[in-house]
Write a structure and sequence with these properties.
Blueprint lengths: L4 E5 L4 H10 L3 E5 L9 H8 L7 E6 L4 H8 L6 E4 L5 H4 L6 E6 L5 H8 L5 E5 L24 E4 L8 H8 L3 E4 L4 E3 L2 E2 L1 H26 L1
Parallel strand pairs: 1-2, 1-8, 2-3, 3-4, 4-5, 5-6, 6-7, 7-8
Antiparallel strand pairs: 9-10
Helix pairs in contact: 1-7, 6-7
Length: about 220
């Protein structure tokens, strides 16, 4: 049985990293682009000291130059890169590190187009968006659009403890990604919300796998 992966993104404090790890996440995201959740490479390196080896460290970038990203990587090298802008495939794969490509979910063709454009991506991170604004909106999109043929799907966009079960049942993703849905305020995580989110996600995933195994018999 492949276990659902859970990622919490936008961590800025040691206590939040410790709390996320204790809650049982599989990946932690550090934001290196303009955001209330922005951390420097030096901050991320210090926070990474509290991330065990079996938890992935993800570095999020958005339309930054190769030099800017390389400078970050010289201080703190994530396990996976996450690109949220208009970066092309050649750029994304040029750092020698597995990467996720965020997909702005506009319509039913968004995923298929991304699969064609980024064949080297380790996975596609499906996110909502606001018109003329980069990055995610923190709001859920129409999950019925989340259909991939060849790539692992990382589902993001407005997830929280209340709706993550429905999201998992609908999309059946490889991983789920949350940020604002477990925050007390932008950039500051809430321990209770993180625990509730992970608990709800694990419960929904367990039920999904149980149903899948029953149907295979």
């Amino acid at each position: 049985m492949n276990q659902l992966k859970i990622k919490i993104c936008g961590l800025t404090r040691v206590e939040d990293v410790k709390g996320a790890v204790a809650a049982g996440v599989d990946a932690i995201g550090f934001v290196f682009t303009a955001s209330p959740r922005l951390v420097s490479a030096q901050q991320a390196e210090k926070l990474s000291r509290y991330v065990p080896a079996d938890v992935l460290r993800v570095g999020l970038f958005l339309n930054q130059t190769r030099d800017e990203i390389t400078e970050v990587l010289s201080v703190m090298k994530p396990d996976i890169l996450q690109f949220h802008g208009s970066e092309n495939e050649q750029f994304c794969k040029g750092f020698g590190i597995p990467y996720l490509k965020a997909v702005v979910m506009k319509d039913e063709y968004s995923v298929a187009q991304a699969e064609r454009d980024y064949p080297s991506a380790a996975g596609l991170l499906l996110d909502s968006h606001e018109v003329d604004k980069p990055g995610g909106s923190g709001k859920a999109f129409d999950w019925s659009l989340s259909r991939a043929q060849n790539k692992q799907i990382w589902l993001a966009g407005g997830l929280n403890a209340e709706n993550v079960s429905a999201a998992i049942r609908t999309v059946k993703p490889y991983a789920i990604d949350v940020s604002s849905g477990v925050e007390a305020s932008p950039g500051l995580k809430d321990l209770n919300r993180m625990n509730a989110f992970v608990l709800a996600a694990r419960k929904a995933a367990k039920q999904m796998y149980r149903e899948r195994e029953s149907s295979d018999k």
